[in-house]
Amino acid sequence: MSALADLIDLLLPQRCAGCGHQPGLLCDACARPLRAEARPAGQAPAGVPPPWTVAAYEGPLRTILASYKERGRAALAVPLGEALATAVHAALPSGPGPPVVVWVPSGRRAVRRRGHDPLRGAVDVAVRRLRASGVPVTALGALRQRGRVADQAGLSARERAANLAGAIEARAEVAGRRVVLVDDVVTTGASLAEAARALREAGADVTGAATIAATPRHRLW
Fold first, then answer.
1. What pLDDT, in 10s, does the model give residues 58-75?
2. Of 53, 169, 181, 209, which is most buried by a Cβ count within 10 Å?
């Protein structure tokens, strides 16, 4: 499906994935929030470093992410991944040894339905951008969901945490590694908290967190 979406993007006239009016993948106005500097996204749940983020999850950005994740606009991995690279760079720890970027996993059913793993696509772009600029990071798919998890949309913060409790496990190879944990959007922080728990149980040191966007309740600007 991703290859087909790429072919459609190539052959058909594109309209901005944010506003739907201007020609091209993203118009300047809709792309501008993704080019901002990274900022702390606010207080995170216990056990999660305060995540760095770039944009507010509102307005055209909601449509952009939906177009990328659910409507096959695979080319959006580039601007979204570049925004994620900005947030990851801000979240990188100091100290010896290259840090590892680990992303919150999508459910297998969601990946099959979408035909791609959207967050992994953005992470791949982010890591390439950082390495090209001389930042020695690597990406590692170290997390997976143990079983079925209900859709988080519409759930309260408490319901999100209960839905994800014990749902993620980490591979043993993260033991002793310094990890920057990433997600696309921080809403309540439940996904980051569960992923961080699994990484720490496997012996990783979760030193930073980064997202592309944060819901208005989290952002500090």
1. 999 999 999 999 888 999
2. 53
Q: Do 126 and 85 meet the contact criterion of CB atoms below 8 Å apart?
A: yes
User: What backbone phi and psi angles, to 5 degrees, belong to 194?
Assistant: -65, -40
Tell me the average pLDDT across 135-153. 77
- Residue spans of alpha helices (H) in 12-156: 28-31, 60-70, 77-91, 108-114, 118-132
Three-state DSSP state, 174: helix
- Which two tokens mark 68? 């990328």
Burial (CB count <10 Å: 0-12, 13-18, 19+), residue 97? exposed
Tokens, residue 209? 């967190």
Task: Give the DSSP H or E segment for 191.
Answer: helix 190-201
Given a contact cutoff of 8 angstroms between Cβ atoms, the answer to whether 102 and 183 are in contact is: no
How many CB atoms within 10 Å of residue 92? 20
Residue 124 CA to residue 205 CA, distance in Å, equals: 21
